[in-house]
């Protein structure tokens, strides 16, 4: 391709043209195959061109593509909401359907705010989130995210949000503290932040149960989320779990918070919800929040043209049905254990691999200059971008990141292959990733 009128992410390079997909493989215009080791950006949970999802989409397009939600609901939206609520944490009563993750965060923030207005606490307006987090790219969601690099040039446009220390044991847990003490220290910081802001003025705390785009599948230490839940409850603050990336089965349970033994007030989901077959996201809301709005103004004052899009809901329902029917959560757990074992075998002793982490088929590899000191590579080397390029050259898609660690850029690779990945494909993923990491590091010398 010599010229393009698409404004691509990179304004200097045109990516290959994806023409066809099958299972965990994507094929470009020259027929070259790429193993989708990251599910795009943790999206493609069923892989590409799944026949059941295609059939459901064909059936829906023959019946009805779209009806505006100010006039109608649709069968696929109702069925999908019922399915999601049935499998959601206790007390969840409704799903609010949007077109993606950022929209889900925006809607969750507005729902939290409206809830407090409805129950007579309009002074609650402050949002607290975590450093080193990503919650989307619309202005509200970007403001909530705590990634310095993504925020920098837009900072003057962003609403004020308070950012506390994330739970990132590899970097931040002190040698003289246990995981419990570390979690307690972070919960205390949150508690003090609420106090400082005036706890009756705080509306919501937003956190990713497993951190994705900024840190590469960082799980919290045991008990951290239970303590966070307690702190939020003590101050009457809503807990919003952002499961846009880690939710919908990616970590081996439908919702990642199930493994933390907490029930958030609102959960945002997207990506794996539609598996990439259609753009869709949702806010899963607790009954008491919906009831406050029902019994108050009777109207959620928010909305977009494509809310509850019939095609998107039909595709998503098919994705969720396949996950249940084919017992894919169990498969995520077994293939996830297989991926971890392979990564540890291939990279566990690598001189530049500092950490291999994650849960289910949501794994991260953190690269370091020096394993002993955890010193990062010089950010100017953009190692993560080199790994991505080398991986693509070897026919592998991985999601690279240069997160900000204490003001420095670190390098991570996120792996999030489709749940249907086979053992042989896991082998290929590991071999190609190892080759890409070695080739990228060699380039920097
Ligand atoms: N929240 C999290 C945790 C994400 O990882 C992302 C995207 O990567 C978003 C929100 C934004 O989702 P979207 O890109 O669909 O707007």
Keywords:
globular; binds pyridoxal-5'-phosphate; 14 helices; 7-stranded mixed beta sheet; 445 residues; alpha/beta
| Number of β-strand runs | 19
Largest sheet composition:
7 strands, mixed
Mean pLDDT metric: 96
Radius of gyration: 21 Å
Low-confidence stretches: none
How big a fraction of the residues is strand?
15-25%
Q: Globular, elongated, flat, extended or rod-shaped: what is the shape? A: globular
What structural class do the secondary elements suggest? alpha/beta
User: Strands across the major sheet, in which order?
Assistant: 4-12-11-10-7-5-6
**Count of discrete alpha- or pi-helical segments spanning 4 or more residues:** 14
Bound ligands, each once: pyridoxal-5'-phosphate
Ends apart, CA distance between termini: 32 Å
- Helix percent reads 25-40%
GO molecular function: transaminase activity
Family: Belongs to the class-III pyridoxal-phosphate-dependent aminotransferase family.
Protein name: Aspartate aminotransferase family protein
Keywords: Aminotransferase, Pyridoxal phosphate, Transferase
